[in-house]
Structure formats: C-alpha cells, structure tokens
C-alpha cells in the first residue's frame, strides 16, 4: 500500500480562556479588603508550522483531532491564571489549508518554518477585582473564559517542484527522472507503475539546479476522475515549467500528436491556468526505429495546427536509455526557468479575508426563532459569547446578563414577536421563563 497521502480533513479546537475568580481580601489588619479575584489565563492557539522534513500528510491519516490546552483559572490575591502553551502542528511544505465549511483558502504554507494560526485561543475571563465600582465595591461577579475557536479544515498537499513531467503512462517519465536525478522511482513495462509523485534534484553542467516531479501517468478523462491522474493533477499547479514527455516511437499504437492534444486537453479541463505554464516537448525513445519519421510528422502537424502568430513550443529529441540529448534538454529547461515567474495559485475570491476575531458591527447581535415545542430560541455570535462567558453560579452575574439582554433589545424583540409572560426561552441548552 502506498504511504503517500496528499489530502486530509481534520478538526482543530483552540483552548478556552480560564475562568475569572471571585475572591475577597481577608487579612486580619486590612479592613474592608475588597475584591481580590484574578483573571483567567489565555487559551492556547493551534498553530501550523512548516517542517521541510515531512513529505506527505500521512501523520493526519489517523490523528484527525487537535485540541489546545485551556488557560488556568484566575487565583486569589489578584493573580492571573497561567496562559496555555500553543499547540504546534507540523505540516509539509506545499500544504494548502482550507476552511471545510466555506471552502475558502486560509493559507498556503510553502516556506520552511512558516507559521500560521488556524484557531485562536479564547481570552481569560475577568475576576471580580475588575468589576469593583464606587456603587458596588465588593462585587460577586466574574466571567467565564472565552471559548476557543473551533473549525474543520481541509489540508491539500501540492508537491513543491520547479518542473513537472506529464504524459501518458509508459512514455518514459520515470526512466527520464532516474537518469537526470539521483531519484530511484519504480520502473516497469506496464501502465501506472508510478502511483505517487516522485521528486528529484537536477544539476546541469553549467551549475544550475532545479527540482523535477514525475507525476503518475494521465489518460483521457483524468480531469473527470478516470485513472490515477485526477488524484495528482493538483501537483502540477506549483510547477513553473512543464516537460511534456511523448513516446515518439508510438510503441503502443497511439499517434504521438494525438497524445499531445489529449494531455493538454486534460490539463486545461482540470485548471485553465495550467495552460499558462510554458511547455517543452520531450520527444522520447528516439533510439527506436520509427521515432525519427514519427517526429518529422509530429512537427508538421504541430506547425500546421498552431496559430501563425504564436510561438511554437521547443521540441527536444532524447533517449532516456542511451542518454541522448539530455544535456541540451536540461540546459534549455534551466534557461526557461530563469525567465519564468511563479504563478499565482489562488485569486482573491478563493482566499479568506484576514481573520477578524471581534464582533462584526454589521451583523445582528441576536436572532429569534421558534422551536417545534413553542419555545423561543435566541442565537447569534454576540449573544452566545456573552452567555458562554457568564458565570451562572453567581446571582449578580445572572442579573448582569439579564441587564445585557435588555440593553441589546432582546426583551422588546420577544414582546414584538408575541412572547407572553411565562413562555420558555432557550439559549443553547439553557432555558428560562420570559417575564413581561
């Protein structure tokens, strides 16, 4: 079984903030000591860090839940609780992180040691020392810690390579990679010998170097899910130059020019941007008897069907077995890489806007709905956050929450919707009676 994994769905949960404390000074010689409860500590963030030593997302195959520690509760003598350590999750270079609910791209992690906070920990709740006022010098009020952010993420690995080898199965991509790099891919005389991407580093005679990826063979319909190609077409997206390998000997009875058109069609169908990448046509297996004549016909068809104002792609006849023409091919590839910029993988519509962890001023503070059992249901980010941070074990905190609801206009809105004295109102799993 292959140990290569390039997609994963995981759940992350940042730590909750620690609860604030209700405490009072009780020293013998300190009259009217007052409140003395400290704030809770900050919950830990979940942080993705790029590790260049990782090559696949295999670590996420069985471990799909990541939860950071919560902050410590506030303590007496006004001492804050300890903040929790961030949870560090290591990912390979080239990992794209998406929000599973919205499909938006959160980040694209390509640099070694690059960090990104995927879930932020909640702030600590305030202790009663924070609520002292001249009118209420000894408050019995504290806040619960803010809940940490929780989300489901889609991870997608796109191999980091400057050059990608594409073509039909058994055209010689793996053999080519094995002779131009130190990589040792599995090579066999049957289709789909390569079932995972293989990477290798090339160094030319002039000292230039670049990374090459040998991708599993494509067949017609790969962009719609036929064969193995649909799983690995994503890895071509990061490449800047495509080496289009063609079996010029036509050993399997296919027309080399039709092969060329078919593969380009699959690349275009998968992602139109792939056609922006410059291509070099690699006419392989030129040591075979029919190859020279087939190459001549291929060039004629290519020229006849190409736009007269467009620049024809370069064609390099090679033989991976005899190593004929490899030096010229590699030099031309290095030269093309030097003048080819990196391509933008995602446009602004695919990227999530910079995260904002406060309240959206334009969003409604609460929403009211009616459950099947005639209970009024209150929801909304602002209201639910106030509810979660209220310590319902303290009467003063409960009264404070009631005043906050009234100040938000919840009472008036319920009354306008037809709520009557004694009706049940629910927030989450908590229920109380509406008092008119």
From TrEMBL:
Q: Known Gene3D superfamilies for this protein?
A: GTP-binding protein OBG, C-terminal domain, GTP1/OBG domain, P-loop containing nucleotide triphosphate hydrolases
For the ligand (Mg(2+)), the binding residues are 174, 194
| An MF annotation (GO) of this entry | magnesium ion binding
Question: Which Gene Ontology cellular component annotation is one that this UniProt entry carries?
Answer: cytoplasm
Give the UniProt subcellular location, in the record's own words. Answer: Cytoplasm
The protein's assembly and partners: Monomer.
Recorded hits in NCBIfam families, A to Z, give: Obg_CgtA, Obg_CgtA_exten, PRK12296.1, PRK12297.1, PRK12299.1, small_GTP
Q: What is this protein called?
A: GTPase Obg
